[in-house]
Amino acid sequence: MLRLATITLLLSLCLPTLATGQIRAAGSTTLLPIIAEAAKVFRKQHPDITLTVSGGGSGVGITSLKQRKIEIGMSSRPLTKKEQTQLQHIAHEIPIAVDAVAIAVSKAVYQGGIKELTIQQVADIYRGKIRNWSELGGADSPILVIDKESSRGTRHVFAKVVLGDERARAPGATIITGSNNEEQSAISNSDKAIGMLSNAWLNDKVRAIALIQDNLSRLPSTENIISGRYPIQRTLNILIHNDSSTQTRAFVDFLQSEQGQQIVQQVGYLPAH
After folding, report:
1. Which one, of 226, 229, 228, lies nearest residue 218 by Cα?
2. Which of 29, 104, 255, 266 gives 55 a disulfide partner, CB atoms 3.0 to 4.6 angstroms apart?
3. How far from the centroid of its chain's Cα atoms is residue 155's Cα?
4. Could you tell me the pLDDT band of residue 20, with boundaries at 50, 70 and 90?
């Protein structure tokens, strides 16, 4: 099974007239665009604070926060019961945005007739039971099935809804990717791929297909996400320590402010409130 190299995005951004200090954020690459854009605005007010943002996946963010290696953990999935127990007295979650996990296919697959599938059909693709697009009404072409690393929040949410277990294996997969930009690139560079991707990372070469549920076909549109009709969606959270610094709390307040929530929308997500 081919493993693509994980791309870690590291941004050193200065933040603002609070005391000098450092804020380290790590975790979900789904949240990276939000935190990075917010930091660019925030640093104009607080040039003496350094904010370092890195990816690695939700699992990395949660673990690093627990070990006090960072001040902000980024997570695009719910905490497990074990994580809730471990963090209940030392940290708490704060919702920042709402997102959908799209079932994404290559442009050629979409134009070849694959514009909607049932959740069961998607599951059968990932379990290796369906291996050619012709079995679903598409072109006579083998399916390139793209999975994500187990530490990724997008994978966790996808697997729970589609495969029935957030830790379920996907024996039909031929490529494992890490970040959203890795998966976006893998799908766009193929003419036969399917993957799971944050809704904000779709483009002309990477198309979302609709999911059929209860005889209704639903795209991950804003309307369907807000109404809850699209079945694979999640809240994007950050985690901070209960004894967080003044600088960290100031940045979190900015993220939750009207200006911060406007940034959430600008980068392609829905505001948390």
Report:
1. 229
2. 29
3. 8
4. low
